[in-house]
Amino acid sequence: MLRISSELLSRLQVLADEDRGREVCGLLLGAGTVVADIRPAANVAARPETRFEIDPAVLIAAHRDARAGGLQVIGCYHSHPGGRAQPSAEDARLAAPDGQYWIILGADGVMAWQAVAQGDVHDRFIPVALASPDSVGQR
Ligand SMILES: [Zn+2]
Prior knowledge:
By secondary structure, this protein is α/β, with parallel strands linked by helices. It is 22% helix and 32% strand. A 6-stranded mixed beta sheet has the order 3-2-4-5-6-7. Strands 1-8 form a two-stranded parallel ribbon.
């Protein structure tokens, strides 16, 4: 289970809706299974219409902040404009089996995934339920 407030989910949806010609992306910051903040990043992929690559400078800065006592980088988010909220084969190819959380915003909704060594989806991802931070023990 991944916990994220409806406010943060709404912000992600707005970011995705504002730029439907390309995949939007960014980082999930927090601790454990709780997303406490998001950090939007430029999509620096060569073909941002169908791929995403988080601006490395944003990633480096986030890890630096984490080492300085800030929120940890617990995952990333990106959108699939017009597509499903499922990881693509390309997503699986790019994902390290590091337990990081992936939120994908598709035309059919929002889903969360965790990157693991032997997942159900493309051998890399398992689905993770999304919950609000205060709903303990549900779902
Ligand atoms: Zn994708």
